[in-house]
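Technical note accompanying the year-one report. For the benefit of new consortium partners, we illustrate the data format agreed upon in the data management plan: each record pairs a sequence with a structure-token string. No post-processing was applied to the example shown here.
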Amino acid sequence: MKFENYTIKDIAKALNLSTSTISRALRDSYEISPETKKKVLEYAEKINYRANPIARSLKERRSHSIGIIVSEIANNFFSQVINGVESIAYDKNFQIIISQTHESSERERLNVEYLTSRGIDGLLIALSSETEDISYLHQLKERGFPIVFFDRIPKQFNTYKVVVNNQQGAYDATQHLIKLGNKRIAHLTSSKSLSITRDRLEGYKKALMANHIDFDPNLVKYSQYGGLHLDEIEKAIEELIQIGFDAIFISGDKLTTGYLHVVKKRNFEAASNIAIAGFTNSNVVELFSSKVTAIRQPAFEMGKIATELLIKLIEAKYPITEFETRVLPTELINNHEIKKP
């Protein structure tokens, strides 16, 4: 049996009122008397009436939905961002549709095409590790489609962006490892194309420079897929063990948990007792090791701010031409005791 939802016409027929009266009463219009509103609302509640979102979108030319594209929902950082998005979106009567890229640029593009074809009002997106060509996003923007980037952002795109202070977070992490007495600090990071990779590498380099430690490019290992494939991490660890390192700064949530998993699984003795500082919003790292110093990102706050800015674009009566990049602070959670000189 096909499901049939109640309509305004059904309520009008039952109460012997016009459809326009029912519509205005449901919208709490001043044109309708309190008695009639009460009568309509009570009957609507009795039959569990729900407004038809398709009819509403056709009338208002808006779907009251926004899309969000991340690499992986299972990533603790992105799941917390999504929670922040939901906290604002639902309060503003927007539904959210979530898509995953699994670090694939092709899947990212297909997701954008699907979401826009479904009539979403705007898009929140963190770029995949494979993404280099975003001309199709520029085309959407030129047609007036609202887009806000967060976390992984493009260099040149005139819209709102929300990030954390990646350079400072990386600097703090590396500086902390140096204060522990370490000199050969490795760096495990994501794809070279990502903004977070570039910024965190720069913070790492600045901390080394500030402590008169030469930068060794051989100690930097890139993971194209950011920890989605453990074989990438295994290969990086094996190469670092051959070179020799006494601490490691890891630039991503999935990479940090992946590194701990691989070290335990493969029983890498040379890597099992070294100090680790990494960007991670996961609480499970402490179950693997007490040697991890975490760089926490305000992921929930990032999701909230990005959504507020997107809704601002969606609801703007006139085109917005001046944009800003919001930069949020990171927090270092210290699980080590600093060695005294």
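Partners are asked to follow this layout when depositing records. The chain has three domains: 8-51, 64-163+299-327, 166-297.
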